[in-house]
Structures are given as C-alpha cells and as structure tokens.
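Per reviewer request, we include the raw input and output of the structure prediction for the construct analysed in the revised manuscript.
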Amino acid sequence: MEVHPPWTDKPAAAPAASPAESAAREQPTSPVVLPAPGRNVFKVGSAVWDIPDHLQFLKSIGSGTYGQVAAFHDSLTDTGVAIKRIGQPFRNSIDAKRCLREIKLLRLLEHDCIIQLVDVLAPSRLDFREVYIVTELMDADLHTVIYSDQPLSADHVQFFVYHILRALLYIHSANVVHRDLKPLNVLVNKNCDIKLCDFGLARGRAGFSQEDDDFLRTEYVGTRWYRAPEIVLTSMEYTAAVDIWSVGCILGELMGRAPMFRGSDFLDQIRSICEVLGTPGDEDLRFIPPENEAARNFIKTRFPSLPRKGWTAMFPGATEDQHSLLDSMLRFDPNCRMTSAEALRHPYLEGHYCEEDEIVAPRHIDWSFDDVQMDTSRLQNLVYLEAAALHPDILERDRSALEERGWLTEATPRPLPTSGEVAGPPEPAGVDSPNAPCA
C-alpha cells in the first residue's frame, strides 16, 4: 500500500525556541574576517563557519551541545547537503573520540536507512579547530513530524517503525549499538524515507567507557526519555537491547503523539517507566548484577506496588498487534526484549515485510580505534586523516608539518557492502541476541 507523506504545503507550528535555538536560526551575517581565496567565512548565531565557497548557506536546521547543523547548496554538484559543524572537538578526548567515531561509522555503514556521508571538509590548516561533516540533506526529522499538525495514519506509523528496525538489523549485525535513538535522530523525507543519524555515542558491545556511561545518565534531557532502564540501573552492562527499547518509545510516541516516559531526571525516569509498566518483579530485575543490588532495592523501596497501565487506556485506538509489539520491546529485562530480526517478523509489520530489504552486514565493525586511550593531539591526527582520505591533496600541502609532527598516514577501512556480498548470521551473539530465555 502506498504511504503518502504526512506533509502539506502549510508550515507546521513549532514549539517556542530557546534563545540558543533562536540564535542558531539566524541568517548568516557578513564575513567576520577577510576570507582566504576560495573560502566563505560568516557567522550563524554565535558560531563562525569557514567553508569552501562552492557551499552556499540556505538555513539553519538545529543546534545542540555537540554541534550546529545547517542546509547548504553545493554549486559543484547542484544538490542540497546538510553540514554539521562541530566546534572545538579537540578540547578534550571525550569530544574528540565522539567526532572520530561518528566519521568512521558513517564511512563504514552503508544502508538506505542510514544517513549517507558525502564529505568531511578538508581542514584549511593543520591546527584546525572545527570539523565539518557533510551528509545528504533530508526534509525533516521524526520529532518535527510527530509534533506538526500533519495527520499520521496507521500506515505511516508502521512504515516508520519497519524502516527504523531495518536500520537496526543492519547496524546490530555489524556490532554497532546506536545508544542515542530518538525522534530527533530519525531523519525523514517527504516521501517518508527515513535515515538514522548521529552516531557519536554509538559503541560496539557491553563494556563502555565510564565517561560515556556518565554522559548517558546525565546529559540531554530530551534524550533521557528514550533511555532503557538498564542504563540507569546498571553500570556499563547494556547491549543492543537499549536500541529496541528506544524503538518501543518511538512507536508509542508515534501512536500518542507525546513522549511515553518523561522523567525529570534519571532517577525520576525510573518512576515514569514504573508508572506505565508497573513495578517490576524479581524476574524482571534478574538482569541487575549482584554488585548493583542497590538499584534493585531502590525500585522495591521507592516504587513498591505501582500497577501496570493498560495499553488500551493509553492508546484507545491501538490494535492488539500494536499492544503486542509494545509489550515485546518495552520489557524491563533487556534479555527478554525482541531483537530487531524478531521485531521485523512481528504480525504488526506483516504488510511491510520484504526479505530482500532486510540486509545484514557481512562482518563486524573493527572497534580497535575506539578502545585505545589517546590524547587529543593523536585524535586530531586521526580525524585529519579521515578528511585526507577524501582530500588526498592536503597531505602534499601539509607534508613538512606532518613529518615534523609524526602524523603518519594510516589505511582507511572500506565501507561495509549492503548487498550481494552480505554473509553471516543476521543477529550475532552478544550484540542483539537475548542472553536468557524469557516467557
């Protein structure tokens, strides 16, 4: 069945913008310094952009603590592109590693439901302070669609969820966990194509860095609502099941056009979850390791007997199949959640099932680049080399300085093929497979 785009020509009403968001939407001002030949230097809000002059600014798309995104027209290709400007990514190793991680994953992951990397703009000098990641340009994000006045039919909801799960099947089989899945990170075109974006917090397995773990607990209020309970209750022990929880949250938000779990802080997030799913029993909490016994006691003490809300009460117009899929995704015990492969076979998505579209990766991502502790200078070198792989001329331009610093070139991995060469199991053990049988 054809799925029509949930857009009209009438602009959708947007929530009131914060001062920072309002500044980010300003038109670019006149150049702040005399640009070098072939460069375009201007300000958008408080950020100074320094980019090649074949890229003409169109509009700001959004901004956050990690960067600013704007739409541009590329006169060389006569196409629209999106550019993420990451300011000062080398101020600390955590931000630098996130920048490197996002570039590497976008280069390696090739799937029609993952945003396509177009370019990493060549640094104008060796001591660069900003990174510009160029991707294909999409029309909106799922958050904008949900909170617009456009109608969302049952077919739209099914279509979005099916293709999000297709993307997860692929990345999970490549040993990648997104970890930051939310409507803002699901980009949408007017024909309803979806693309996952923002892989800066992605990792490959349980056992993440303490810094990232703390970040997941404390940062991004809007993201907290999509975090699985194990992120709050355990320490660095979660798997690809966190992405499945996020899809369940997105499904509920598409159905009700409001977030399902709106905790005011990370501990209050558990209260919000328990008020919907009810107080978890001992079987639901068996995933919590003995060293985190305090987390188990916290739930039993603070929320001892909250009843479960029924899906019928929350979503009066929902079908039994929607109830079933929500039940399978929003389970307290991550080992009992559906995998992406299982979810794609759920009766709710039966009308969209297409085995040829459900592509898995031929091999796992090599995460060795992310395991080694590096200082910011070394990480800056690696980001420079990612740009140089696309712009090899800068290696000759900077040769003497590169030799002086010892910034030797390294082989750049090739993208994972998306079809034809695909082989291997669709759900590698330890990535998106339950660790224990559940009823």
